[in-house]
């Protein structure tokens, strides 16, 4: 019935807006683990009050109050001699809720898999045919909350490793350097990241980069709210977020740094993988030797 009734997002929106109080009362009734347990126990059989109390091991008064709410909401029906059973509506909503919950968990696992592939993409991009590299300060981490920032963005695609980075930076440099922005790297911070990631071959456990499978890289340079930008230049408002940060020197050290941070988050008991953007912060864009680029690597996390 729901699928036929709400044939569009607009009709669903209008129904919710017109039923706010009733829906809130329904959700409030479901917003307690004891009432959910009652519904679950009544799914397969009718039960007397005393049997419910014994199975759930809760005080009579507490059980009675929860049952009253469920009966008044129409999710449970009270039969003769203190027997309770789940109503058609109660069974329908508990079944729909369970299905929606499972669907959310599946999507969450899919998002985690996407995040894992994204991080492996970052790591692979720098370790592919590079081999062992030396990290700097690999045992030093900072937890940083990056505030919302306003940035100018430059993005390019490429068909071999390093190609989109070079193209995107060339465009950024030709725009920002004449404005003196490279002379104040603290004010105009330079961030970069894959966009989009290289294609991942699961069978070969490797990333494919060629003319048929290009990947992209995007640079951000931060600007103040009152900084005037030409109409043909892309400006973005970035929400920021929480990161674990560590430093390294040189492009070839980035792969091991990303790998180190990935392991740190995976083993952390307090932090989990975040869903916001991974960032490579080049602290001095005036340096031209890639082996000497001073990086802070920002790995997204959440508590």
Major beta sheet summary? 9 strands, antiparallel
The tally of domains stands at 2
Shape: elongated
Query: What is the strand tally?
Result: 14
Mean pLDDT: 86
Provide the CATH topology of the largest domain. Multidrug-efflux Transporter 1 Regulator Bmrr, Chain A
Features:
single chain; 303 residues; alpha+beta; Arc Repressor Mutant, subunit A; Multidrug-efflux Transporter 1 Regulator Bmrr, Chain A; 2 domains; 9-stranded antiparallel β-sheet; 3-stranded antiparallel β-sheet; 9 helices; 41% helix; elongated
Topology record:
Layout: H1 2-5, H2 9-18, H3 20-30, H4 33-42, E1 47-48, H5 49-56, H6 60-72, E2 76-78, E3 83-86, H7 88-127, E4 142-146, E5 149-158, H8 163-176, E6 190-194, E7 199-201, E8 206-208, E9 215-223, E10 234-238, E11 241-249, H9 254-267, E12 272-273, E13 279-282, E14 294-302
Antiparallel strand pairs: 1-3, 2-3, 4-11, 5-9, 5-10, 6-9, 6-13, 7-8, 11-14, 12-14, 13-14
Helix pairs in contact: 7-9
Description:
41% of the residues lie in helices and 24% in strands. The chain is of the alpha+beta class and 303 residues long. It folds into 2 domains: 2-94, Orthogonal Bundle (Arc Repressor Mutant, subunit A); 128-302, Alpha-Beta Barrel (Multidrug-efflux Transporter 1 Regulator Bmrr, Chain A), CATH 3.20.80.10. The strands form 3 sheets. Strands 4, 5, 6, 9, 10, 11, 12, 13 and 14 form a 9-stranded antiparallel beta sheet that branches. Residues 126-138 have low confidence and may be disordered.
């Amino acid at each position: 019935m729901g699928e036929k009734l709400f044939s569009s997002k607009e009709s669903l929106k209008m129904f919710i807006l017109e039923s706010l109080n009733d829906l809130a009362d329904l959700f409030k009734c479901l917003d307690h683990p004891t009432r959910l347990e009652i519904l679950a126990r009544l799914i397969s059989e009718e039960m007397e009050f005393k049997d419910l109390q014994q199975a759930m091991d809760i005080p009579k008064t507490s059980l009675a109050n929860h049952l009253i709410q469920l009966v008044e909401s129409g999710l449970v029906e009270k039969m003769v001699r203190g027997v309770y059973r789940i109503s058609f509506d109660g069974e329908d909503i508990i079944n729909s809720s369970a299905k929606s919950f499972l669907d959310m968990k599946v999507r969450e696992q899919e998002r985690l898999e996407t995040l894992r592939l994204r991080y492996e993409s970052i790591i692979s991009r720098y370790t592919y045919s590079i081999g062992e590299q030396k990290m700097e300060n690999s045992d030093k981490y900072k937890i940083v909350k990056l505030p919302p920032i306003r940035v100018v963005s430059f993005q390019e695609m490429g068909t071999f490793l390093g190609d989109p980075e070079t193209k995107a930076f060339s465009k950024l440099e030709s725009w920002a350097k004449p404005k003196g922005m490279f002379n104040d790297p603290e004010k105009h911070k330079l961030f970069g990241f894959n966009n989009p990631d290289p294609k991942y071959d699961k069978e070969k456990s490797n990333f494919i980069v060629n003319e048929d499978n290009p990947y992209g890289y995007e640079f951000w340079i931060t600007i103040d709210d009152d900084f005037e930008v030409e109409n043909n230049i892309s400006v973005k408002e970035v929400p920021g977020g929480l990161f674990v940060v560590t430093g390294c020197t040189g492009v070839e050290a980035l792969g091991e740094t990303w790998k180190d941070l990935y392991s740190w988050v995976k083993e952390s008991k307090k932090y989990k993988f975040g869903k916001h953007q991974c960032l490579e912060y080049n602290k001095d864009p005036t340096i031209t030797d890639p082996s000497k680029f001073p990086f802070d690597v920002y790995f997204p996390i959440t508590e």
